[in-house]
Amino acid sequence: MMERIKTSFLAFLVLCSLIQSYFLIYRLPGSESVVQSGNSYIETDEMGPEEKTENLIYPKNMVVHLGADKHTMFYPGQMFYDLIYNRVKGRSFDSFQRRTVSNMDWSALRSANKGIELNFGSGIPVTLLQRVMQISPDSLFEGESIHKMWLYSVDGEPKVHALFFSTEGNVVYEAAQADLTVQDIGQLVDFGQEWVPYTLSEDESYYIPEQPVDMVSLELTTDLYTVEQMQRSLFFDPGITRNIRERDGSEIYTDGKRSLQVDESQHFINYTDPAAPPSGESNPGRDVLTAINFVNQHGGWNGSYRLSGTLESQDRTAVEFQQYYRGYPILDTPGLNYGLMVMELQQGTVTSYERSLLHAERQEQEKRIYNLPGGDRLRELLGVVPENVNITALQPAYRPSLQEDQLRLTPVWAVVLQDGTMKELTSF
Q: Coiled-coil stretches, from where to where (predicted)?
């Protein structure tokens, strides 16, 4: 009799222990289990498509120097932009020689000579440029990041100069051997003869169009990636994630190691994984490839993107992708975090991942031609920018705004600041 009582009491204690363990795991105070078993996973449609590295690396614009101090500009998606870029990608560049930027008269070169400038923004590692251009291996040059490429010819000289500008200050590399002729440069430059004329600003930092620039304002139907989709994409076992609501209204989902913060008002997520090695050297080129592969495997690309910059800091690399539509960047605004996908990597491991949950359909609605001002009217708008703000570029862009399930893209002038950030001109 006594043995039966002991056995029953023991079984009761085991049962209590199991119940207590369940509540500790799935019902912590202030938290809620989101997915409790594999059977409760919500099957959804496939998320965004994967993308090749080569399709994410291209210049943000091209400056065409026509000679006689005349200039124009092309943007991604425009016919002449594509013609020029495809021809440049088909040429080879070899035998690089390092030079000092301050030893050359750039004002005279751009005003007197015909040429093409390809602007990549804040810099692209040479190892990545080699994936889209025929750049021969060079132990010294391959460690650089390039923010601009300049091809030009000088009257009376038989060769073409091919310059690659490093992000490391006062350094430029010239390809002693470039598979381009003076006639090639002349043909490329001729594409811009009848285009909108541009003039350098007074401080020679950026170009101003002398005529209005035509764009299209439009609306796109949108949808949202669900939190369940992102959980399945980012966590090894979504079944053990817990949900914690913050005071600011955002939601945090965690498996005890990684966390996914969701801002429902902005339809924006911030995923963090602190499990990277504590020390070591970073490699921007390798880290960009890792970042692209991470997005391919964890959510895909909700539109067209361009690698807009890499920033190396000690053992970390920040990688930024800018979303484009019809060849123009979509601004990331205080009212709607939509235009950027930002990642941070440490030792080849993604430790931070920020992106929008919004994705737009390609079916365009409410399309209208929109004229961005040029000439003196644009100079008036630029006049309101504070003197202590250093503008490095002037850029046509789209301001996004959300109206129910419609994404409106409104053409605006944006300025690129010294630190690489882009702001709407009228926001000053």
A: none
